[in-house]
Design a protein that fits this description.
There is one protein chain. With 106 residues, the chain is of the alpha+beta class. It is 49% helix and 20% strand. It is built from 4 helices and 3 strands; from the N terminus they run αβααβαβ. A 3-stranded antiparallel β-sheet has the order 2-1-3. Helix 2 packs across helix 3 (55-68). The longest helix is centred in the C-terminal third of the chain and has 17 residues, at 78-94. The protein is elongated and about 50 Å long. It binds L-tyrosinamide. L-tyrosinamide is lined by residues 32-36, 38-40, 43, 62, 65-66, 99.
Length: 106
């Protein structure tokens, strides 16, 4: 104890791990892809339900994806991004829509 690097047994590495633990986590964009078949209202519903968007925000994002091919639904830590992308794909599959969602490191 004392210098933050050596514990009572004289082993090193404690401060290295402590530094790792306080780093900000990498962030990941959840992207939604356009397709010709998924109804616009379904995409808006997904954005409201899974990404907590207002109806106006959800409509804006949906139209952006519709016109440009891809759009950002939100930015999250890895596990949250993966979970939300999975929830989108599950909901789409259960409703027999081909809607696709992926994640990408910021
Ligand atoms: N292009 C679809 C249509 O015209 C609507 C749509 C928007 C689909 C966004 C997917 O991620 C999407 N019905």
């Amino acid at each position: 104890m004392g210098d933050g690097q050596n514990d009572d047994d004289g082993r090193v590495g404690v401060s290295v791990q402590a530094r790792t633990m306080v780093k900000r986590p990498s962030m990941y964009r959840v992207l939604m892809l356009n397709d010709d078949y998924t109804p616009m209202e379904f995409v808006v519903h997904v954005l409201e339900r899974i990404f907590n968007k207002s109806h106006d925000e959800a409509t804006e994002i949906m139209l952006k994806v519709h016109h440009r091919g891809v759009g950002v639904c939100g930015v999250f830590t890895f596990e949250v991004a993966e979970t939300k992308a999975g929830q989108v794909m599950d909901l789409a599959r259960r409703n027999q829509h081909p809607l696709q969602c992926t994640i990408e490191k910021e």
